[in-house]
Amino acid sequence: MLSLKIVVAVVGILAVASTSDAQLVDKKALTLGAAKHIAAAAEADAKAKGARVVIAVVDDGGNLLLLERLDDTQVASVNVGIGKARTAAIFRRPSKVFEDQIRDGRVAALALPGATPLQGGIPIITTAR
Q1: Is residue 36 part of a domain?
Q2: Is residue 11 exposed (0-12), middle (13-18) or buried (19+ Cβ within 10 Å)?
Q3: Does residue 67 fall inside a structural domain?
Q4: In a domain, 95, yes or no
Q5: Looking at the DSSP assignment, which residues form a beta bridge with residue 56?
Q6: Over the stretch 76-119, which tens digit does the pLDDT of each residue have?
Q7: 114 close to 62: Cβ distance less than 8 angstroms
Q8: DSSP one-letter code for 75
Q9: Would you say residue 39 lies in a domain?
Q10: Residues 6+ apart with CB under 8 A from 31
Q11: Which of 45, 80, 49, 115 is nearest to 67 (CA)?
């Protein structure tokens, strides 16, 4: 009797798995090559401005894909840069939006989990289908 219940459970799981395929969504994902291209453009811009920065590129879940710390950039900027990039990715807006909210008196923005309310994080948006 126990083995019959296991077989029924397995068949039930397989039936759910076959119908769940229809619920999957295709989405664009940032490749390492694209991340390198973005970082190279950011590095060129920073150098042209004489800025010492950390360049962090994350995926849509805020997970780090690529990190560069330009020469003479303080080590403390590494985690801040990752935080700014993650904020832009997971909230889908520039991290400056949160800095502006706090500056304008909406201090509740400080309580947002995972938000680094400092300018510099820019979301990567694509219109390609």
Answers
A1: yes
A2: exposed
A3: yes
A4: yes
A5: 67
A6: 999 999 999 999 999 999 999 999 999 999 999 999 999 999 99
A7: yes
A8: T
A9: yes
A10: none
A11: 80
